[in-house]
Amino acid sequence: MTSRTAACTCGQLSITVHGECLGNGICHCLACQSRTGSVFATLGAWAAPYEIKGRATQYVRIGDAGAQFRFNFCPVCGSTVFHTEEGADDFVMVAIGCLADPDFPAPQDSVYDSRRHHWVKLPDGVPAFARNPQ
């Protein structure tokens, strides 16, 4: 079985996921822009179980549809490494950049595209949704 480890900048916090990525995408919502300090977030989902090493500081944010997302970031360097959705314990969302794998596959979709900065170009064929289509 394939395993991948994502880690924060300083290496204090990491998560190891197993198996294939269930799906990956880009989020351009203003909350993700603020959270990452970038103009979008790139996320991949993996099925549980997974292993966490190190200490995490958590921040819970309520999404547009009322879901509660628990973001886990390193209290030393501040990198957001992964997040979970309250009540959805069967998967975890990992920040693709924390995998440090430039060969990771291109995103499968782009959400909150209405907030995408005009100069950000998506790969050809990536479906874009004005909001989250859930």
Task: Indicate the topology.
Blueprint lengths: L2 E5 L6 E5 L4 E5 L2 H7 L4 E7 L3 E3 L3 E6 L5 E6 L6 E6 L2 E8 L13 E3 L23
Parallel strand pairs: 3-10
Antiparallel strand pairs: 1-2, 2-5, 3-4, 4-9, 6-7, 7-8, 8-9
Q: Quick recap of the structure?
A:
This is CENP-V/GFA domain-containing protein. The protein is mainly β.
Q: Low-confidence parts, pLDDT < 50 over ≥5 residues?
A: none
Total DSSP helices = 1
User: What portion of residues belong to β-strands?
Assistant: 35-45%
Count of distinct strands: 10
Give the distance, in angstroms, between the N- and C-terminal Cα atoms: 30 Å
Largest sheet: 7 strands, mixed
The largest sheet has its strands arranged as 6-7-8-9-4-3-10
Protein name: CENP-V/GFA domain-containing protein
Family: Belongs to the Gfa family.
GO molecular function: carbon-sulfur lyase activity; metal ion binding
InterPro entries: CENP-V/GFA, Mss4-like_sf
Question: Please, could you describe this protein's structure?
Answer:
The chain is mainly β. The chain has one domain: Beta Complex (Metal Binding Protein, Guanine Nucleotide Exchange Factor, Chain A), CATH 2.170.150. The chain has one helix at residues 30-36, and strands at 3-7, 14-18, 23-27, 41-47, 51-53, 57-62, 68-73, 80-85, 88-95, 109-111. The protein starts with a strand and ends in a 23-residue tail after the last strand. The mean pLDDT is 94.
